[in-house]
């Protein structure tokens, strides 16, 4: 995975890939969804 440039925010896709989960799962966690 490419490193983020200084000062930039990671994308949801990058967070999901780093965590080893789907984009949907990462989205639920970030947005406080239940389930």
Structure description:
Helix content is 49%, strand content 0%. It has 35 residues and is mostly helical. The mean pLDDT is 90. The termini are far apart. GO terms for molecular function: DNA binding. Residues 10-35 form the HTH lacI-type domain. This is LacI family DNA-binding transcriptional regulator. Residues 1-35 are annotated as: Disordered.
Inertia-based shape: elongated
Portion of residues within helices: 40-55%
Distance between the termini: 28 Å
Write down the secondary-structure element order.
HH
Secondary structure: number of strands: 0
Q: Could you give a short account of the major beta sheet? A: none
Strand % is under 5%
Give the overall pLDDT as a whole number. 90
Instruction: Describe the oligomeric state of these chains in a short phrase.
Output: single chain
Low-pLDDT stretches: none
Q: Structural class from helices and strands?
A: mainly alpha
User: Using only CA atoms, what is the Rg?
Assistant: 11 Å
Number of helices: 2
Keywords: DNA-binding
Region (Disordered): 1-35
Protein name: LacI family DNA-binding transcriptional regulator
GO molecular function: DNA binding
């Amino acid at each position: 995975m490419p490193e983020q440039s200084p000062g930039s925010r990671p994308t949801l896709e990058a967070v999901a890939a780093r965590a080893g989960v789907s984009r949907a799962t990462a989205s639920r966690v970030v947005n406080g969804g239940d389930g």
